[in-house]
Amino acid sequence: MAKILGGLTTSHIPLIGKAIAQDLRNEPYWQPFFKGFPAAHEWLRKVKPDVAVVVYNDHGLNFFLDKMPTFAIGAAAEYRNADEGWGIPTLPPFRGEPDLSWHIIESVVAEEFDPVTCQEMLVDHGFTLPMKLFWPGDEPWPVRVVPVSVNTVQHPLPTPARCLKFGQAIGRAIASYPEDLRVVVIGTGGLSHQLDGTRAGFINKEFDLMCMDKIVAEPQELARYSTLDLVRLAGAQGVELVNWLVARGALTGSVGKVHSNYHIPISNTATGLLVLENRG
Ligand code: DHB
Ligand code: FE
Q1: Counting atoms of ligand 1 from 1, which one is nearest the CA of 59?
Q2: What is the pTM of this model?
Q3: Distance from the CA of 190 to the center of ligand 2, in angstroms?
Q4: What's the Cα-to-Cα distance from 96 to each of 16, 188, 215, 254, rounded to whole Å?
Q5: Total domain count for the chain?
Q6: pLDDT for residue 88 is more than 90
Q7: What is the 194 CA–ligand 2 centroid distance (Å)?
Q8: Is 267 in the pocket of ligand 1 (CB under 6 A)?
Q9: At residue 81, what are phi and psi to the nearest 5 degrees?
Q10: DSSP 8-state secondary structure symbol assigned to residue 67
Q11: Most exposed: 72, 98, 119, 128, by fewest CB within 10 Å?
Q12: How far apart are CA 161 and CA 171, in angstroms?
């Protein structure tokens, strides 16, 4: 059977791509952000995943405002990187795991979730940068991927409660997959940030740290917020936190924290990193 090893969550700010490309990781601006990652690399070397299920939000690349699925799941053999003009480097394609994708799709539909199924799917910085942060070595990528996209862009957004339940359904789906695959679940985005409007630059450290604490063992506490609460407390783009809730939901057993890091700001965003282990 497939085994869920744990979860990783990180912010996905485009500027990170430039820092990696220009090798700025040890510069004073970047060091407090990148210093969080060696512990994640060590854990990944220990648990040796075959597949990463990556929960992120598309920012207007594969889906635009005219057609915006609440939830979408990739079922392609390959996913190519494209982005919407940030000037960040394009990364090589990612290998899919279509049989696992279809198993997850069939399982969550049987549980009354109705994702869009994508046999072709471009992935943007919300997907690619976390992959590069967690696997910074030379390509080819050492894991195959299943992208899961959540609408955090065009209201109405799925509620935090719905996102946690969707993640739990994904977790049950993975755990019922008959092949012996080792799986990690990744949630990207956040933490607090607002990129536009009169509150541009808004960051809420107290709320972020509370979320990073509660999500480990009491994610249902975060599922109590409404979408509007999240906009108020985390900023209009800080709602990307729901991607973390989907990923956390997929860790169906008891969960322990291996490592965390929090740093303000990178670009306009509060950055968070968590490594969570599924302890069965
Ligand atoms: C920034 C953060 C994001 O999550 C994103 O998708 C784009 C930009 C930023 O802080 O610059
Ligand atoms: Fe984003």
Answers
A1: 6
A2: 0.98
A3: 7
A4: 24, 18, 28, 28
A5: 1
A6: no
A7: 10
A8: yes
A9: -85, 130
A10: B
A11: 119
A12: 15
Which residues does the annotation mark as catalytic? Answer: 125, 193
Positive/negative CA dihedral, 178, 183, 188, 192: positive
Nearest to 130 by CA among 44, 210, 69, 67: 44
Query: 124: domain CATH number?
Result: 3.40.830.10
The CB density around residue 214, as the number of other CB atoms within 10 Å, is 15
The answer, yes or no, to whether any atom of ligand 1 lies below 6 A from the CB of 189, is yes
Whether residue 59 has its Cβ less than 6 Å from ligand 1: yes
Helix (H) / strand (E) element for 45: namely: helix 37-47
Looking at residue 239, the DSSP 8-state letter turns out to be G
Distance between CA atoms of residues 34 and 222, nearest Å = 27
Predicted local distance difference test score (pLDDT) of residue 253: 87
Query: 110: domain range?
Result: 3-278
Q: From the CA atom positions of the chain, what is the Rg in Å?
A: 17
Identity at 81, one-letter amino acid code = N
For 215-250, how does the pLDDT look when each residue is reduced to its tens digit (9 = 90+)? 999 999 999 999 999 999 999 999 999 999 999 999
**Cβ(74)–Cβ(144) below 8 Å:** no
Q: Tell me the pLDDT of the chain averaged across its residues.
A: 96
Q: How far is the CA of 24 from the centre of ligand 2 (A)?
A: 21
Dihedral-angle region of residue 272 (phi above 0 means left; psi in -120 to 50 means alpha; beta otherwise): beta
